[in-house]
Amino acid sequence: MRPLQTAHGPWRDRQGLIVQLQTSAVDDDQARAYGEIAPIPWFGTETLEEAIAFLTQLQSEPAILTLADLSAIVEAAPSHYSATRFGLGMAISQLQGNFPPETTEPAPQQICALLPAGSAALEAWPKLWDQGHRTFKWKIAMADLAQEFSELEALRRSLPPQAQLRLDANGGLSIEAVKQCLRRCDALASQGLPIEFLEQPLPPAQFDDLLKLSQTYRTPLALDESVTGLAQLVDCHRRGWRGIFVVKGAIAGNPLAVLDFCQRHRLDVVFSSVFETAVGRWGVMAMAAALADSGQSGLDQSGLDQSRLGQSRLDRAGPGSRALGFGVQHWLRPDGLDSHPNHQAHDQAHDQANNPTSNSHPQQAEEALWQQLWNG
Ligand code: MG
Fold this sequence. Notes:
The protein is α/β, with parallel strands linked by helices. Helices cover about 40% and strands about 15% of the residues.
């Protein structure tokens, strides 16, 4: 399988941990919940070794911890332990009965499909369109700029007007190039062919420039590399960012805290994959569904309303909600963790016309998965 090329070199293996939390037996009533801890240190999280050391330390704590004790210990971890916070936070809140349930796999129109770079995108999109995708991502800052701009115009003109096209520069443009790009995008928008947004055109260090650009042009900007997790989300919002945030849910921190912040400040969020397994994916999909649902039902500032979250469904998301950045399954070798009944892989290349399936609680499937892992 081809390794994913990143700015940090080829990425061959995705490593992480599946954690199981188990309550002690009370009247034979034992509950288990699962979470995923899959750090990406070059994105600003803890390392896998740090996460393992943290869990090892936890196991040396008194034999029985209450969920409140455990929450407090996780909360006291260093701020960059955002993958650990996600995994344990997800499991703790499931046991507390307040993790948002997610019962349907999103349909292709709710998932952004990544197009190949360059002019190959022109041949690639019709098949993805036929599969149901309506939002596409195209990487820029990969080749000669003038050539990319003309390819971009050709691509946008070839797509149906109702298609959404988002661009991702991965921080690779100069400020002059961003301005040129945004002028082109704005011109397309004035012809009824808007670009959904331009993602991270400048590196995170140029936040002030990004902020100014976001206030100058019609085409929206999104922050991705600038926001690893909740701490950066809070910081960028405090510094005035009112554009889009790409939230990598599985490394963003405690899921309920992330959701609470997004809801209270009505952030414009795109949830995105960081190559998690079905366990983490389920958690992030549940967060996305809860946020989409709260946008529609207009949650007030009292935070999460569990009775409404119980009805969360991505397919009820309002027209303003954004497609998920989860079209990455084709990068992953099947690892047995994709067999989750709620999580059939959304391989862009092989995706069938989707019909949302399965409403069973994921608990049994994760139980089976755990046994499978435990038995090697
Ligand atoms: Mg990006």
